[in-house]
Each structure stands twice: as structure tokens, then as C-alpha cells.
Design a protein that fits this description.
Chain lengths: ~110, ~325
């Protein structure tokens, strides 16, 4: 069955520069720098990436960063906690907008 | 077939004669894998092991019958006397379970600068091994210990129930004997970390830093060096890769990570591997894959049983494991 997401397409990511090579070069250089060890280790950055991947629900990123997290020495428990961090922030972001709902409700309602 | 003919076939310009994809990768990078002076002798005393680790390239385990006899062990000692190696590296299976291990250590130690024993950290910590531990310490034998992951669940999934905690206990005992502080005690303890699945290993420096911090903080354990290696797609690990549908992807990862610069420092250039039955191989992985030294079956009791510098090394696709990233020790 055809699907919009094909795992093999992840391997073609590098080809995205075909029609805009300069921009792609800059992006991939930046990307590489971002994930190099700095104040945070590569392992920690990979866990952040995994959490973000779940927040933005990108199947390519989830595939890639699950493997990267394992390769950087993370385990299933750590990765699950990272996903919960993403879930908490996503859920919290919805819930905190409840304050806006309350503000409007309070203004419009009689009590 | 002579060694030279095998070598010519391996390096033929005719692509039809490529012995493996690995040879093709070497040729595409204009590289030739040749021996230098042999300085290390690795001795595999057999496949008998108290564990059945899922990543084992030899499919070692409690039911294996291949174990070096006293006669072969004596031949190994004579071989080491004849050829004078800098390093002698004893592996298995679990070498602690071979009845000739103490005799080998006592007789081989005076013949080399460094003697190593590879330990799974469990076989060495049995009540009956008190004398062996004492022999290992007295002979300043370097211990290279399997310690795949700092995570208990990952380690046990690869090596068996409760192995992580037992390994921690053994490391504490080895530390109490002075192991893990080579500068002060002369007793070297190195760890080997392997991925606990079908993925590549972490960068060695980063793993070492993390293991050192966590082992010290949680258990007060010290070690000297850590090596981070990829798993070799042979034996029980290959069977697991096939069973779980990971084999093709894993091989793609290994070949995709081919590092031409690693070829220069491959261990097989300076190493000869003796099997439990006394036959020679270019490395322990070729032994597992039944690839004889340079392509020709040679026994340690034969004359001229030391490979010459410049002679070729038997290769197969599992060799991509040692060229993925920085190499293998």
C-alpha cells in the first residue's frame, strides 16, 4: 500500500540540496554543529532531539533519533522519559490555554 | 592451493574474483590489507563458556565441547617460545573454564611484555577460581572485561539475568586487589562496551567518560581504559540479526561506516590467532568464520608457522566491523 511516509526516503535526506545546494550546505553544516558535543553531550542532545521529534510527530526523526540515542548509549527508560517530557509540554501547552478560555468566559459570563 | 595463489585471487583486478564486498571496498580505496610484523599472539582456548551472550560471534556457551587440551596448550607454549611476541592475549569462551589456563599463564608470562586475559567477569568470580585470581594477579595479567552497558536492563538482555549486578560485584573485588589503578598497582583493568542490539557503538571517548563517572559515583568502581566495539555479524549475533530481520540493515550500517583510514591500524596486521585446536587464523573473527590464516590451514606445530610481513590476510564481509569508525583492538 502506498503511503506518504516511506522509511527509505530518510536515506534521501541529503539529496534535498539538489535544487538549492547553497542553502542545503549551510543547513547541514549548521545541523552538524548543533549536534556536536558542546556544553551538552551528543547523548543529551540526541535525547532532546528524540523528544522534539515526538512533539512534532516526525516519523523520520523518531526513526533516526531512536537509533542515534541507542548508539550514543541511551536506554529504553531514558528514551521513554524523554517522550514523556515532550508529552508533558504538549499537554501543558494545551492546558495552559485554558487560562485564556477562563479569561474570556469570565468576561462574558455573569458568574 | 598455495598461499600466494590465494593472495593473487583475493587481489585480482578482475572484479569477478572479488573474495568479498570487503575486498571490493579495499580496492575501490586503492588499499591492500597486508601483514606487518606479528607482535601479538591471541589464543582462543575454546568455546566453553558459562554464559550464552546474544552478541557472541563464536556462539560460545555451556554446552560447547571445543576446549583446548593440555597437549595443544603445550604446543602453544612452544610456539610462543619460538616466535617471541610482545603481547599474548588469552580469550575464549570463558578462558577461566579451561583446565590448562593457569599452566598457560605461568608459562607464557615470561615470554612476553604483556599478557592479557579476556573475562566475562562471571566465570572468574566463582569460588573455585580463588587460585586462578591469585595466579592472574601474581603474573600481572591485564584483564579485559566485557561490560557492554552501564544500564542493567540492556546488559542483562544481552548477557543473561542478573549478570549486570554480578559484574559489578566482580569489578569491586578486582578493584580491591589493585586492578583498575595500573599506575599505582601495575594491575591493568580495561572494559569493553558493545552495543546491546543492532546498532553502532558510541564514540569511545564519550562512552569511557560516561562509564567512568557513573561507575565511580554509583559503586566506587575504577578502571584503566574502555574500548567501544561494534558487534561482529557472526555466530549467535548473526543468528539474532537474521531472526529479527535486522541483518541487511546492520550490514548496510557497517559498510556505510567503512573508514579507509582504519585499515592502516587493523589488529590483524600484527596479530596471529590460535584456535582451541592449534590451527592458525588472522583474527578471532576469522576463526569464528572458519577462515584459515592467509587462506591456508596451518597448525602451530608446523615449521614456519608465523605469517611473513607482506603476506595477505584472509577477509570476508564481517571485516567491515573492524573498519566501521575507528577500528578494533
Amino acid at each position: 500500500m502506498e503511503t506518504y511516509y516511506n522509511p527509505q526516503d530518510l536515506l534521501k535526506f541529503g539529496e534535498i540540496g539538489k535544487d538549492a545546494p547553497k542553502l542545503a550546505k549551510k543547513f547541514f553544516e549548521y545541523y552538524g554543529e548543533v549536534f556536536a558535543e558542546g556544553e551538552l553531550t551528543e547523548r543529551e542532545k540526541s535525547l532532546i532531539a528524540l523528544a522534539v521529534a515526538h512533539a512534532i510527530q516526525c516519523p523520520y526523526c523518531i526513526d533516526a533519533y531512536t537509533q542515534t540515542c541507542l548508539e550514543k548509549g541511551s536506554n529504553s527508560g531514558e528514551m521513554t522519559e524523554a517522550v514523556h517530557v515532550a508529552t508533558a509540554i504538549r499537554g501543558g501547552a494545551s492546558l495552559v490555554h485554558g487560562v485564556q478560555m477562563r479569561n474570556i468566559n469570565d468576561k462574558l459570563s455573569m458568574g | 592451493m598455495s598461499k600466494d595463489i590465494v593472495s593473487e585471487n583475493i587481489l585480482s583486478d578482475d572484479s569477478e574474483n572479488y573474495a568479498s564486498s570487503f575486498d571490493k571496498a579495499l580496492m575501490e580505496n586503492k588499499l591492500v590489507l597486508k601483514r606487518e610484523k606479528t607482535t601479538t599472539c591471541q589464543i582462543n582456548v575454546g568455546y566453553l563458556c558459562n554464559l550464552s551472550c546474544r552478541h557472541c560471534h563464536l556462539t560460545a556457551g555451556p554446552d560447547r565441547k571445543e576446549n583446548m587440551t593440555e597437549k595443544t596448550a603445550q604446543q602453544v607454549i612452544k610456539y610462543a617460545q619460538r616466535y617471541q611476541f610482545n603481547t599474548i592475549d588469552i580469550t575464549g569462551g570463558a578462558p577461566e573454564m579451561n583446565p590448562n589456563i593457569e599452566m598457560l599463564i605461568e608459562n607464557l608470562t615470561p615470554l612476553c611484555s604483556q599478557i592479557i586475559i579476556r573475562s566475562n567477569l562471571i566465570a572468574i568470580n566463582k569460588a573455585e577460581q580463588t587460585k586462578l585470581i591469585s595466579t592472574i594477579k601474581r603474573n600481572n595479567v591485564t584483564i579485559i572485561a566485557s561490560f557492554p552497558s552501564i544500564n542493567e536492563v540492556q546488559t542483562n538482555s544481552q548477557r543473561g539475568d542478573n549478570i549486570f549486578q554480578q559484574s559489578i560485584e566482580t569489578l569491586k573485588i578486582l578493584n580491591s586487589l589493585g586492578y583498575g589503578d595500573v599506575k599505582n598497582s601495575g594491575l591493568e583493568l580495561n572494559l569493553v562496551s558493545n552495543p546491546t542490539g543492532a546498532f553502532m557503538p558510541s564514540a569511545q571517548e564519550q562512552v569511557e567518560k560516561r562509564f567512568r563517572t557513573i561507575l565511580d559515583n554509583k559503586w566506587g568502581i575504577q578502571f584503566d581504559n574502555l574500548y567501544s566495539f561494534a558487534n561482529v555479524p557472526l555466530g549467535r549475533f548473526k543468528a539474532w540479526l537474521k531472526k529479527t530481520g535486522n541483518f541487511d540493515n546492520y550490514m548496510e550500517k557497517l559498510t556505510g561506516n567503512f573508514n579507509p583510514c582504519a585499515v592502516q591500524n587493523l589488529m590483524c596486521r600484527n596479530l596471529v590467532s590460535i584456535a582451541w585446536n592449534g590451527y592458525l587464523h588472522d583474527c578471532d573473527f576469522n576463526l569464528a568464520n572458519k577462515l584459515p590464516l592467509g587462506g591456508e590451514k596451518t597448525h602451530i606445530s608446523e615449521e614456519n608457522a608465523l605469517p611473513r610481513p607482506g603476506s595477505l590476510i584472509a577477509t570476508a564481509d564481517h571485516c567491515f566491523t573492524c573498519t566501521a569508525g575507528t577500528g578494533f583492538t
